[in-house]
Write a structure and sequence with these properties.
137 residues; 4 helices; Aminopeptidase; alpha+beta
Length: 137
């Protein structure tokens, strides 16, 4: 397996996104999102794309994991771990070594254990409130 950085096309994004049963946004929306993404990470098994994740944020204090997908046939085979490791290394390589930054996400219920194993804390936690979101149409 290998991970390629910043090679994710809108079409490939939609293929991977829908592979896990998520309802696809329109291609124009994907193009806009990708153009405003800090970095994309796409996992391949030989030439077959098998997973992706986008990194968004301000580049200085806060980063956010978005659209993290591993196609069903490759789940629980280390693809997600490889993608997270590449994403975290990318952040470390692109920030001042003296900085501490926040890496956040909203997890599906099925992925909670995966993220906990990777060092993420469930929110709410003892010192903070819950993660929240709102869809705007």
């Amino acid at each position: 397996m290998e991970v390629r950085i910043n090679t994710l096309s809108p079409e490939l994004f939609l293929d991977l996104y829908t592979s896990v049963g998520w309802e696809a946004p329109c291609i124009g929306q994907v193009e806009k999102a990708l153009s405003n993404t800090i970095a994309t990470f796409t996992a391949y098994d030989k030439k077959q794309p098998i997973g992706m994740v986008r990194l968004i944020g301000d580049g200085g204090m806060s980063f956010y994991i978005k659209d993290f997908v591993v196609i069903p046939d490759y789940q629980a085979m280390g693809v997600g771990t490889l993608l997270i490791e590449c994403l975290e290394n990318y952040i470390r390589e692109n920030i001042n070594p003296d900085w501490a930054v926040s890496l956040e996400l909203i997890s599906t219920k099925d992925a909670l254990l995966f993220y906990k194993k990777k060092g993420f804390e469930e929110r709410p936690c003892e010192w903070d409130g819950p993660g929240m979101f709102k869809m705007i149409r």
